[in-house]
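Methods, example record. To illustrate the input and output format used throughout this study, we show the complete record for Polygalacturonase. The sequence lines were provided to the predictor; the line carrying structure tokens was produced by it.
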Amino acid sequence: MMMRKSLSLRSITLMMLMAVLVWSVTLETCIARRGRHWRHNNRRSTDLSDSMSSKKPKSHGNSHHSSHNNNNSHHHKSKPKPKPKLQTPRKVDDNYNSPVVSQLPKVQPPSLPSLNESQVFNVMDFGAKGDGIRDDTKAFEAAWAAACKVEASMMIIPPEYTFLVGPISFSGPYCQPNIVFQLDGTIIAPTDSKSWGKGLMWWIDFTKLIGIKVQGKGVIDGRGSGWWQQDYPFIDGETKLIVPLNNSVNQNPPISEFDLKMPSIKPTALRFYGSIGVEVSGITIQNSPQCHLKFDNCGDVVVHDMTVSSPGDSPNTDGIHLQNTRDVLIHSTTLSCGDDCISIQTGCSNVYIHTVTCGPGHGISIGSLGKDSTKACVSNITVRDVAMHNTMTGVRIKTWQGGVGSVKGILFSNIQLNEVQLPIVIDQFYCDHTTCKNQTSAVAVEGVTYERIKGTYTVKPVHFACSDDFPCVDVQLSAIELRPVQERYHMYDPFCWQTFGELNTPTLPPIDCLQIGKPARNRVQSDHDVC
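The corresponding predicted structure is encoded as:
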């Protein structure tokens, strides 16, 4: 009997041990499965963190490549994540300065592909010294000759060096396209008269190129004071309209640091001629003997985020000069000079200028046009979102008597003015001499719109002086608010002569001199004179 109870107890104990063993194995399996799932989720989280950190651009060794590698993060091994969709921002009224504008995503221009060593040409490798004393012109010419042979190459002017360079031409038409002139150092012009011979029209010249970029954080310094003193006094066509009080404005010639007499022909600091696909960005051009930046016979031009700087009394130092050039975009640029901040000459069309700061200087001008009885054609010009301070004129159209052709399709919009002498000007009697001959023919002016021109003036708010035979027609004015600030000059009311158009809103001050509608008769240009 006792033996049976003992066997029965052993059987129960054995069964309980087997049950515990099975339960423990099952529990371990469950924990292991949970562990695998947790580790998998943790690995995905780590991958996401790695992917976010991989957005930092890789280093490729050479610092001059850094600007081209910002968009190369897609070469990272991690799988790219889809970009979140941006909510379309609401349209902001131009009259309302909303903080929403600053929050809009900025569109970055496409970057150049990464360059290999065979595409990079540093002037230091071609014998440049960069001490600002020894002449580096030949080294620049040699570096360009090498870069010219390679498509999408880059010529590098490195930072922390100053290069003395004489008159130089970087020219095609045998150069490969899409060359980048990477300027991060400083280029200075020679100041001795011998380097210029009898005089040259340009200092640094790019000619007959396709896809040329001049970019960087460097400086082009024309050291032009040696020329400026020879042009004093400088007469602008509108100078006659500015009469000082009690002769209180004393102008003195700019002081030159050089005693040598320079040639009478003055060079433009940086010129582009006969080129297509031109871009200038980032650089500073200062103290040019004459124009700072000039485009002649070019197309598809972009200028942005650059600076022009010279004294307000430096004569004939236009900031940006356009001539026979089409399809132009200028924006996000600061211009300080002694003549027109931007000058638009004959043969220009499809020009869009916005977000520009101008001053000192002579404002933004179309012209002068038609000098020496020539034909001038300018059309489809937009200037908007511009700030001007302490300039002689604001937005101006100037033509000579005796010229032919036309200026049409012009928009000046949202111009903010601070103590500008003559904010709005059309002058078909432009003359920068003491006297000019009276002539009947004129460059016709039609279809000019002024809207939201606001700020302060110190001489006269509006000056419209149009031709008797070719009056200005279709001049539209709206939201003009100009308030006087008494300074050192006699002040005048708005002036209009032979100017026809519409006042779409009340203006301040009232511009009652504008003749509403169209002229009863208007002389018609011959077929030869029409643009």
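Annotations derived from this record:
The longest strand covers residues 404-420.
The chain is about 15% helix and 35% strand.
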